[in-house]
Structure formats: C-alpha cells, structure tokens
C-alpha cells in the first residue's frame, strides 16, 4: 500500500522533504526559547544585569522570528506537497478507471468510486499533511523537550517520563477502540452517495411517483448511520482531552511542589523551574498531538486501502504482444462460444454459441428479458472476453486485435443511451472528433434526428444537459445512433436502440441503413418483430442459447417461440415477454 501511494508523490518529493526539515528547525527554535528565558530570570532579573536581559531578550526575539519563519515555510511546503499528492491520486485513479473493462467496472459501484475520488482522497490528503508536519514535529519536539528536561534536572524529568509512559498506554487504548468505528464509517459514505446519486439522476421518477418522503427517509437513514458511527468514535476520542488535562495539571502540581523544595534547597534555580514547567507542557501537549495523529492515520488507513484497491486493479482485458490493427471486414464468427460474467459461476450466461455472419448482413436478434442478447453482442467489441470457444471478427480472433482498433470498427449503441453535457455537435463528434458539421448533419439525417434538431432554438449548437435530460428518450436514441454512424464502422450494433421511437421512424432508420451503409454488418436487438422482420436473418435467443436462426419466413415456419411472439404482436394481444416461455 505504501509503495502504491508513494508512487503518486512524484514531483512533490522536494516539498515532502523540505516540510519536515522546516518543522524540525521550528522545534529546535522553540526548544531554545525556554533556556533563554531561564537565563534571563537567573542571570538577568535575579542578578539585576540589564545588559544580559537586553542581549538574551534580543536572542529570544530572533529565535521566535526564526521559529515563525520555519513554521510558515513548513506550512507552505506541506500544503503544496499534500494537495499535489491528492491531485496525483485522483488523476491516477481516474486514468486507471478509464482502462477498466466492463468486468472490472462491475466490481465497484459508481457511488463507491465517487467516494474514493472525493472523501477518501481528502482524508489521505489531510493525513499526509499531518504526517509531514505534525508527525515529524511532535515526536522531535517531545524528544528535544525530554532531553532538555533531563539536562536541567533528571529527578524532575523522571516525573515526565512516568507520565508519558502512563499517558501513552491510555491513549493507545483510546485510539485502538476508536479505530474499529472509523473503519466502519467510510464504507457507509458509499451508501450515502448512492442515495444522493439515485435521487438526483431519477428526480423526475421520484416526483412522478410521489416518493419524496421515501427518498428522504432513505437518505436520512444513510446519513444517520454515518452520524452514529462517528459519534461513537468521537465519543471515545473525546477522552483524550480530560485524560490529558488531568495528567498535565497533575504533573504541573507535582513538579511545582518538588521544584519549590529544590529551589529552597538551592538544588534548582527559579529560571530552571520555569523552563521545566514549559517543557512539561510541551511534552504532554505533543503527546496529545501524537494521539490525534494516530487517530487521523487510522481514519486515513481505511481510505488509503480503498484508494489502493482502485489503483492496483488491473484491467482484465489487455492487448496481445503483437496486436492486429486492421479489421478486414465485418464478418463475425462464433465458434462454440461460452461466456460467464464470473469465472466461478456454475451456469454460463451464453452456452455453445455457433454463428457465421457475413459482411454487410443485417441480423436481427430477439429474445425475452434475460435471454443474454446484450451479452452476445458485448463480446464482439471485446467489452468482455469469452470464457470458452473462439469469436472472430474479420477472420481474426478478437483477442488478437488491438482493442482500440477493434472498437473503432465496431460501433455500439447500448440500451442505456448516454449523452454528455455539451452541444449536440460535441456529442456527435464522440463518433468522429474530426467530423465536419455537414457530416454530422448527414449522420443525423440517416438517424432521423435532423428533423427535431432543426426545430431547436440553436440547432446543432443546442446545449445538452448532463445525461441528456432536456431531450426525450426517442431523441436521445436517435442522437446516439447518429453518433455511432459517424464512426463509419464495419459493424454496427443497435442494442434495443429504437425502442423509444415510433414504428414509422424505426422503418425510416432501417431503410437508411440499407441504402447508405450496405457494407456495414448490422446487428439489431429488438423486442418488436417489425423491427427485425426485414433483416437478412434473425437470431432467436432463449436462456443463453440460440433457439432459432433464419429468415422471417423460415422462423415463422419452423420456430415455435418466434411464431407465438409474431402472432401475439400482430394481433395486438401482447409483447415478446408474454409468450413463448421467454
């Protein structure tokens, strides 16, 4: 874990080294001041030597100024190092997330990743700054004060030593009990963020179903869980203060009593006693500071582990040593393909799939919910790897391709259409960042999106809100189809991507595909028979297997599931999931 986190310090190593150096210098200056004060009292005030008072007083002022400068320097360099460290952590996590395959992403919830990039990084940032400043300052200051105390009076310094040992044991117990609560707290942030994220993204559904009270209750519960855990942890940590105050005042009383007797017996000077009392406060306050450092480190350790989980996650998919960069054509071959989302799954999602699709063919895919239609097409662009058998695109195993080259030739319009905040043109250029406005318009005409874009106030320069909330579901689908067409792919996959458009528009889109991109292999997943009946061939999926594969007429004659669904839809009595045991 330390190696993983340490790699993100990078260009801030200099600041990370200078910070403790400045803090040590500040401690040395602070340690000298009580000695100078003792000298003023003993050799200046008691002896009536004003010259000595002026000289040593000037040295005290200079020492205090140097201490202040060193403290400021440590603060500046510490802030720069910790904020830079946090920046690098977020950047490294974000970049690593971009390399994840779908199977990697499945291991982390969206809210969990958000928490790790925000709250967890902030915790580690604060801990790192405390580590550089306080964790170096406190022990050095404590040691220096203890050394000077023994130098002045070993007998009185022994009181500090015993107090430090006892207090250290008590604080260790406090920190140990608080730690387990802090470890439980941070995963609860995931639940809180998930509640907020779901509510904000689905606010229209919440209001439509009048579920505000339910969502408020869910948020309150998640928030209360964090509150209760932190109350328990902070309640334990709160014992630090009374234990520390009791020890400090007890030590002051004991040292004052013993020191007074030693002063009367000329075993100790008044100035030395004042110095010892100052060192007493210094030692005990630094011990309390160390206890708070341990608490902060404990809190950040849980966050650091969560961050390292993301940083150390290796993509399940990787390019081969000598990848193929050219996709010859849009042919697709499934040869005894099996697939499972988890390696230890008892039953595969796809079972013994055998298909041979020619370049330029239009293939319809239908099947009930859970029949593995999306799983089938996700393998083509290698969003997941097959667990058995071979899948070839353009005559080459997809595992032999450079993944970027393969995905550039396979355009996918997923079930959950996503638009990003920005103009319509900026969203369309996700398909081709160099596309001209005319090319974007042409793609939109093919996707039947141009007609509604022209009616918008700013046309193609209309700003799309985050998630495409200011366009309808059908408009969003057509924009996503246009975006995919701009890639000029050899394979186009539409995963139930026309479900929100009317049948007339659906027919126009299919006609445009047939006329404008005849050489592109098209895979169309749909629930409506009308969306695929004109395809060259149709795949009927059932429970992860191919139940039928042929033309519309062939399936009507030979496939009972397809025939039942067709009859139910044409008679208007149901949809695909209502018949055929799907």
Helicity range = 55-70%
Strand content: 5-15%
Tertiary shape: elongated
Total strands: the figure is 12
Low confidence ranges: 578-582
Strand order of the largest sheet: 6-9-10-3-11-12
The main β sheet shows up as: 6 strands, mixed
- Amino- and carboxy-terminal Cα gap: 48 Å
Radius of gyration: 35 Å
Helix-strand makeup class:
alpha/beta
Individual helix count: 19
> Average pLDDT, to the nearest integer?
83
Précis, in short:
The protein is of the alpha/beta class.
Fold topology:
Layout: H1 2-6, H2 13-45, H3 50-98, H4 102-105, H5 110-152, H6 154-201, H7 203-208, H8 212-237, H9 240-264, H10 270-311, E1 332-339, E2 350-357, E3 362-367, H11 373-378, E4 388-393, E5 396-397, H12 403-408, E6 410-413, E7 422-423, H13 424-428, H14 437-446, H15 450-453, E8 463-464, H16 473-485, E9 491-495, H17 503-516, E10 521-525, E11 537-542, E12 545-550, H18 552-558, H19 560-570
Parallel strand pairs: 3-10, 3-11, 6-9, 9-10
Antiparallel strand pairs: 1-2, 1-4, 4-5, 7-8, 11-12
Explain what the structure shows.
- The chain is of the alpha/beta class and 582 residues long.
- Helix content is 61%, strand content 10%.
- The protein has helices spanning 2-6, 13-45, 50-98, 102-105, 110-152, 154-201, 203-208, 212-237, 240-264, 270-311, 373-378, 403-408, 424-428, 437-446, 450-453, 473-485, 503-516, 552-558, 560-570; strands spanning 332-339, 350-357, 362-367, 388-393, 396-397, 410-413, 422-423, 463-464, 491-495, 521-525, 537-542, 545-550.
- Helix 6 (154-201) packs antiparallel against helix 8 (212-237) and helix 14 packs across helix 16 (473-485).
- The longest helix has 49 residues, at 50-98.
- The protein is elongated, with a radius of gyration of 35 Å.
- Residues 578-582 have low confidence and may be disordered.
